[in-house]
Amino acid sequence: SPSSHLHHHPPPAAPPPTFITHHTIALRAMPLPVPTSRLLAAISAAASSTADLRRLSHLLLTPYTPLPPLRCLNTLLMALARHRMLPDMESFASRMPARNLRTYTTLINAYCLAGDLPAAKRHLASLLRAGLAPDSHAYTSFVLGYCRAGLLSHACRVFVLMPLRGCARTVFTYTALLHGLCGAGMVREAVAVFAGMRADGCAPDTHVYATMVHGLCGTGRTGEAEVLLAEAMAEGFEPNVVVYNALIDGYCNAGDLELAVKVYERMDLKGCSANVRTYTELICGFCKSGKVDRAMVLFSRMVEAGLAPNVVTYTALIQGQCNNGQLECAFRMLQSMEATELVPSEWTCSMLIDALCKRGRVGEAQLFLGSLIQKGYRVNEIVYTSLIDGLCKAGKVDAADKLMQKLVSQGFVLDAHTYSSLIDGLCRQKELSQAMLVLDDMMVKGVQPNAVTYTILIDELVRELGSEGSKKILNKMIAAGIKPDVFTYTIFVRSYCHEGRMEDAEHMMVEMVDQGISPNLVTYNTLISGYANLGLASQAFSVFKHMVASRCKPNEESYTALLRLLVKKKSSNNILASSVDIWKIAEMEYLQELLEEVVKLQLLSDIEIYNCFLRSLCRVDRLEETKILLGEMQSANLTPGEDVYTSIIGCCCRLKMPTEALTFLDSMIKSGYLPRIESYRHIICSLCEEGSIKIAKKVLGDMLLEEYNYDEIVWKILIDGLLRKGNAAECLILLSVMEEQDYRPGDALYAKLTGKVSISNDAHEVAQ
């Protein structure tokens, strides 16, 4: 009988029974033909293992077994496709004695998912030769395949073709095309496709809404995403964490952090748990805006929720601390990261090296790089370039050059950015001829200079030879096919302004716009300063108006140029040194006049103008004038910004007026802001210095009621604030206040607080 024949003469390729699942063993022992239900059970059991699937595919189609039903063969084919076992799938399909539409669509879908469109087309041709018509599943597979390959026009053609071929589009078809369009930034086209879904008899589902929300948010159209989401929720759609994360990311990218926090809070109310990505997006948003304390609060919540921060989370916090000048805190975050066995990325390491070099701590940067190599971390060109750039900026060009030569000898491939750093260092040392030799050398080695390289050289040539003397290198840049950027043009605008050639400066502005390059804040400020230095008020204000109309927000430098112009014009003393800080000497009447002039233009909100003026006055410690403008704001029902309050508190503390600072701190909290730990540090240190330890304890106690990261409080206030100033006794007193709130510092931290170890900088400790 067939069964005895199978038992006594097994095929040579059959695997040993001990390696096959019990379902497959049972199959081989059963009288044939095997019932379909048992075959399907065996396929289902084997689907969890690629090895078992491969053995079963060999077993089912052998000369020694009766032909299984096509339904079973297709089920096994789908299992092979799901596991991306394409060679096995192709081999199995070639041995199938018969095929139907499901067979072909399985093959087409598998190859489209794998990005192998030629193979998918080959099976489509076979499908057509078999006299079959492709169904929605086959068409949708091609839409998906073309989208993944970036061939959006082909995907759209298939999408349009479907109803013409009598094939209804499904929600999967729409999801595939919408995802492809949104991923390619073609959100306007995606919105048009989405608008036609219902008319096509296809109702959007969770995936469609999630795709559209993500696409809209990714292009800054978060408001539209919210409207769409509201419509969806009215139809019973419940957003998931992916949809909420898209909204949060959209708001963070637009700088609308408070709206992002509201979405986060809405998640909690709806019972949708935040995940690692939720917290990481918020942390990145707050760090980019300089609000690292808020980011650390979210970091604490994240850890308390049992979520593990990833490399992106830590990198954002490290960058935030570096940007805020809190380098020791950045290295403490690195230590925390390594304690969780996460390996810092090249961006994390280069960021820390760059931060050390910018503060003149090049030796520590070199030590840190050495420590990375000792730990076995991957140190690539990005990390080395950060050190080379730092060495050049510190004036150690010879050391940077030697390091570059060493890297080349070790097989590292240096790019234009690395060479540009060396060229910049040489230009800073006025070694222009040497810089030009480096330019020639990099081109000989096949490294194409970029816009940054040429712009550095043009900048130095302009400084040494004037605007006309740099035209040769500019022409060389254009001849090389490299388009000058906004920085290149701004150098020429600056040069013309210094030479008093304002008409040429204006022409250069027109030329850059004609080339499709929008002037930036530096460009506009340069032109404003050029007119201001010549005493041309109407032209300076005209440029200011044009700048704001172009959606380029003025900063302190913009107002400084206008204020200097006003003071120079009104003052009897015509000699006004450029080195003098105009905000320090300008009389209140001039400040008021400029304020009124700018407000009168009605181009900016009053609050933006007042905030900039207040920050400028606080920077030079003019507290009385600051109070006058604050009074005007309050009369107009305007609330100062968070950064303004921070500036005022810092100003008060520098003037040894901590009690005054406390008043502003209270106003800040009442205005709904969470004060920075830095503000508390200024106040508490000032109070301790004047002996008001009781008030300092109360301030710290009130602070602990807010949601701050306690370790951050210890580091930034107790260690970096009090201990570094030699106030060890006050530090321990305030530590006891924290201990009353059940705070227990780690052993290493406690040793520093009690003076058992020195408070040397953590960057050096990490390097050692």
TrEMBL record:
<dbReference type="InterPro" id="IPR051114">
    <property type="entry name" value="Mito_RNA_Proc_CCM1"/>
</dbReference>
<feature type="repeat" description="PPR">
    <location>
        <begin position="711"/>
        <end position="745"/>
    </location>
</feature>
<feature type="repeat" description="PPR">
    <location>
        <begin position="380"/>
        <end position="414"/>
    </location>
</feature>
<feature type="repeat" description="PPR">
    <location>
        <begin position="415"/>
        <end position="449"/>
    </location>
</feature>
<feature type="repeat" description="PPR">
    <location>
        <begin position="135"/>
        <end position="169"/>
    </location>
</feature>
<feature type="repeat" description="PPR">
    <location>
        <begin position="310"/>
        <end position="344"/>
    </location>
</feature>
<dbReference type="GO" id="GO:0006396">
    <property type="term" value="P:RNA processing"/>
</dbReference>
<feature type="repeat" description="PPR">
    <location>
        <begin position="520"/>
        <end position="554"/>
    </location>
</feature>
<dbReference type="GO" id="GO:0007005">
    <property type="term" value="P:mitochondrion organization"/>
</dbReference>
<feature type="repeat" description="PPR">
    <location>
        <begin position="170"/>
        <end position="204"/>
    </location>
</feature>
<feature type="repeat" description="PPR">
    <location>
        <begin position="450"/>
        <end position="484"/>
    </location>
</feature>
<dbReference type="Pfam" id="PF01535">
    <property type="entry name" value="PPR"/>
</dbReference>
<feature type="repeat" description="PPR">
    <location>
        <begin position="275"/>
        <end position="309"/>
    </location>
</feature>
<feature type="repeat" description="PPR">
    <location>
        <begin position="205"/>
        <end position="239"/>
    </location>
</feature>
<dbReference type="InterPro" id="IPR002885">
    <property type="entry name" value="PPR_rpt"/>
</dbReference>
<feature type="repeat" description="PPR">
    <location>
        <begin position="606"/>
        <end position="640"/>
    </location>
</feature>
<keyword id="KW-0809">Transit peptide</keyword>
<feature type="repeat" description="PPR">
    <location>
        <begin position="240"/>
        <end position="274"/>
    </location>
</feature>
<dbReference type="GO" id="GO:0005739">
    <property type="term" value="C:mitochondrion"/>
</dbReference>
<dbReference type="GO" id="GO:0003729">
    <property type="term" value="F:mRNA binding"/>
</dbReference>
<feature type="repeat" description="PPR">
    <location>
        <begin position="485"/>
        <end position="519"/>
    </location>
</feature>
<feature type="repeat" description="PPR">
    <location>
        <begin position="100"/>
        <end position="134"/>
    </location>
</feature>
<protein>
    <recommendedName>
        <fullName>Pentacotripeptide-repeat region of PRORP domain-containing protein</fullName>
    </recommendedName>
</protein>
<dbReference type="Pfam" id="PF13041">
    <property type="entry name" value="PPR_2"/>
</dbReference>
<dbReference type="InterPro" id="IPR011990">
    <property type="entry name" value="TPR-like_helical_dom_sf"/>
</dbReference>
<feature type="repeat" description="PPR">
    <location>
        <begin position="345"/>
        <end position="379"/>
    </location>
</feature>
<keyword id="KW-0677">Repeat</keyword>
<feature type="repeat" description="PPR">
    <location>
        <begin position="641"/>
        <end position="675"/>
    </location>
</feature>
